[in-house]
């Protein structure tokens, strides 16, 4: 009897945990990068999970995603602000904005 009870308990636990595991799947995961946010003074080696184009989680725990980038040795930031630009014409401004710079 004991042998039959343990497999049933295991199945119940697995079914209970399954929805949470699938909810943690991100569209993009950036692993092991130096994540910096000057506004909040966050500066740590961490993993970033992105879902639907939005940062969903920043954690030091392992996370999984559809696509994964190993950022070891790289800095991960939302964007840089370009405080000095030599090009002051509309064409240069368009290129800067497309690259993610803020003017």
Strands, helices and their partners?
Blueprint (H helix, E strand, L loop, with lengths): L1 H22 L2 E12 L4 E10 L2 E6 L5 E6 L4 E2 L13 H9 L5
Parallel strand pairs: 1-4, 1-5
Antiparallel strand pairs: 1-2, 2-3
Count the beta strands.
5
The residue fraction in helices comes out at 25-40%
State the helix count.
2
Structural class of the helix and strand makeup? alpha/beta
State the end-to-end CA separation: 71 Å
- CATH topology: the name is Urease, subunit C, domain 1
Corresponding CATH superfamily: Urease, subunit C, domain 1
Contiguous low-pLDDT stretches (5 residues minimum) are: 1-22
- Describe the biggest sheet? 5 strands, mixed
Q: How many structural units, i.e. domains?
A: 1
Order of helices and strands: HEEEEEH
Alpha-carbon Rg, integer: 21 Å
- Shape annotation: elongated
The share of residues in extended strands comes to 25-35%
Which CATH-level-2 architecture? Answer: Roll
Mean pLDDT: 75
Question: What this model shows, in words?
Answer:
With 103 residues, this protein is of the alpha/beta class. The protein has one domain (26-98): Urease, subunit C, domain 1, CATH 2.30.40.10. The chain is 30% helix and 35% strand. Strands 1, 2, 3, 4 and 5 form a five-stranded mixed β-sheet that branches. A hairpin with a 2-residue loop joins strand 2 (42-51) and strand 3 (54-59).
Please describe the structure with a list of short key phrases separated by commas or semicolons.
103 residues; alpha/beta; Urease, subunit C, domain 1; 5-stranded mixed β-sheet; 5 strands
Short description:
The protein has helices at 2-23, 90-98; strands spanning 26-37, 42-51, 54-59, 65-70, 75-76. It has 103 residues and is an alpha/beta fold.
């Amino acid at each position: 009897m004991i042998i039959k009870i343990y497999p049933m308990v295991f199945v119940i636990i697995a079914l209970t945990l399954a929805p949470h595991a699938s909810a943690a799947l991100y569209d993009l995961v950036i692993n092991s990068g130096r994540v910096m946010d000057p506004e909040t003074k966050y500066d740590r080696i961490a993993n970033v999970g992105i879902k639907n184009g939005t940062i969903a989680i920043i954690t030091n725990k392992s996370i999984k995603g559809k696509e994964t980038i190993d950022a070891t040795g790289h800095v991960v930031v939302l964007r840089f602000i370009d405080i000095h630009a030599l090009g002051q014409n509309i064409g240069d401004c368009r290129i800067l904005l497309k690259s993610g710079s803020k003017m």
